[in-house]
């Protein structure tokens, strides 16, 4: 994993009177899972999108390891960060396998390594490769699409995972399984994970630390699940 440092991070969307994210400073330690939990609209997605450089901060800094994200070369950024979102974000014109293979290919893995990895990732998220390898996203349920989204985020084995309500549409049994897989990745592979949810139980289960956010991502509490439950 790698440390993620947010320093005075602020985002103002054009035309909005208030910033969506206002002056957030936070350190996520290497190998740690931090869960951002808070009401809809409090700026969780905006924060993840800034870390992943999908949108530019209005001000403030983001560092991963000792590098400023703004200075990072795009391929290096893709190698560093896996990103899974609620709506899965799959490319509709690509099959399941092509979606999962995208980043490993981009960062230069060999054909045979990519092929094996796609199978491994489908197994990990509980989708039979024989059935799902060549399907197009529109022929999957919402939960299956999310699982492919998670497989794609993990495919190139990035040290950092950004996950934005990745299990929201997944059925409860599979969600439990995926949550356990995530805990395993966190313990065995020491990923640094920033996980967004509005589900407090999910936050308690997955977080080494939990940031309870109010409007504009103001941090109301930032502590271990144990400490948060006793306060
Ligand atoms: P959350 O992920 O916590 O639900 P978001 O980060 O999606 O919150 O949104 C935070 C605030 O910013 C909300 O008020 C939302 O309406 C606003 N917002 C999000 N994306 C945009 C955008 N592209 N343009 C303008 N406002 C936005
Ligand atoms: P999700 O959180 O799954 O991305 P949203 O409905 O929050 O779903 O956002 C869908 C898209 O619309 C995102 O690209 C987001 O940036 C944008 N968006 C969200 N809120 C606003 C807003 N108030 N004004 C303009 N665009 C927005």
Computed over alpha carbons, the radius of gyration is 17 Å
Task: Kindly state the percentage of residues in helix.
Answer: 25-40%
Based on CA inertia axes, which overall geometry fits?
A: globular
Strand order of the largest sheet: 6-7-8-3-9-10
Number of strands: 10
Distance between the terminal alpha carbons, to the nearest Å?
Answer: 30 Å
Number of helices: 9
Q: Which structural class do the helices and strands define?
A: alpha/beta
Question: Percent of residues in beta strands?
Answer: 15-25%
Report the biggest beta sheet as strand number plus sense, adding barrel if it closes: 6 strands, mixed
Q: Taking all residues together, what is the mean pLDDT?
A: 94
Low-confidence stretches: none
> How do the SSEs run, as a string of H and E?
EEEHEEHEHHHHEHEHEEH
Q: Which ligands appear in the coordinates?
A: adenosine-5'-diphosphate
Task: Chart the SSEs and their pairings.
Layout: E1 4-11, E2 21-28, E3 33-37, H1 44-51, E4 59-64, E5 67-68, H2 74-80, E6 81-85, H3 96-106, H4 111-124, H5 129-132, H6 142-154, E7 160-164, H7 172-189, E8 192-197, H8 200-206, E9 209-213, E10 219-223, H9 225-230
Parallel strand pairs: 3-8, 3-9, 6-7, 7-8
Antiparallel strand pairs: 1-2, 1-4, 4-5, 9-10
Domain ABC transporter: 4-231
Family: Belongs to the ABC transporter superfamily.
Keywords: ATP-binding, Nucleotide-binding, Repeat, Transport
């Amino acid at each position: 994993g790698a440390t993620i440092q947010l320093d005075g991070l602020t985002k103002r969307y054009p035309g909005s009177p208030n910033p969506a994210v206002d002056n957030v400073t936070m350190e996520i330690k290497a190998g740690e899972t931090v869960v951002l939990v808070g009401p809809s609209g409090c700026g969780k997605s905006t924060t993840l999108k800034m870390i992943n450089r999908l949108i530019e901060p209005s001000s403030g800094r983001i560092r991963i390891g000792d590098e400023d994200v703004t200075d990072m070369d795009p391929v290096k950024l893709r190698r560093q960060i896996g990103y899974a979102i609620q709506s899965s974000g799959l490319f509709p014109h690509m099959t399941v396998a092509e979606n999962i293979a995208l980043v490993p290919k981009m960062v230069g893995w060999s054909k045979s390594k990519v092929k094996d990895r796609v199978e491994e990732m489908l197994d990990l998220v509980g989708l039979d490769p024989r059935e799902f390898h060549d399907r197009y996203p529109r022929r999957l349920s919402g939960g299956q699409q999310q699982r492919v989204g998670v497989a794609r985020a993990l495919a190139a084995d990035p040290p950092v995972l950004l996950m934005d309500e990745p299990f929201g549409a997944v059925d409860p049994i599979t969600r439990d399984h995926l949550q356990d897989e995530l805990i395993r990745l966190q313990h065995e592979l020491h990923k640094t994970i920033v996980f967004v949810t509005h589900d407090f139980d999910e936050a308690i289960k997955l977080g080494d630390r939990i940031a309870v956010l109010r409007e504009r991502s103001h941090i109301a509490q930032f502590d271990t699940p144990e400490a948060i439950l006793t306060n």
